[in-house]
Amino acid sequence: MDDRLFKAAMGKFTTGVTVLTTELEGTVHGMTANAFMSVSLEPKLILISVAKTASMHEYMQEADQFAISVLGNGQEAVSRYFARQTEDDSEVSFERFEDRPVIEGAITQLACTKYNEVDAGDHTLFIGSVENVTVQDEAPLVYFEGKYRYME
């Protein structure tokens, strides 16, 4: 099968939209990611997949801590910024959660410590031990067939 067919098949799976953040030497680094999932309840683990060619890959290898912000309906501009689809950072506001940078207003925020990293082809799977979470009862921003979609 060719890459285009594979991408089309994967696009049929609706995903949430997250922003992965970490901080090194006082500078916040982030990227939009939809390859995110829960892994285990005991211990509480999550997984996020980062391309080896992404600038975030190097930061994640260096960092011991990171955060995941699950975006809500009104946060498409934030997702586009961290996906490098726009230079406009006027929509991006950080707050601190468990001493990690997270996206202000995200419907879920997870503070994680790196638990493991696994080589997976052209990506690395970063597994995080979840230390704490926040949850807002709001609709998520989702991604389907290469487009942002809104839930009610």
TrEMBL record:
One of its GO terms (molecular function) is riboflavin reductase (NADPH) activity. Keywords: Oxidoreductase. Residues 10-150 form the Flavin reductase like domain. Signal peptide: none annotated. Belongs to the non-flavoprotein flavin reductase family. PANTHER family: FLAVIN REDUCTASE, FLAVIN-DEPENDENT MONOOXYGENASE, REDUCTASE SUBUNIT HSAB. This is NADH-FMN oxidoreductase RutF, flavin reductase (DIM6/NTAB) family. It comes from Marinococcus luteus.
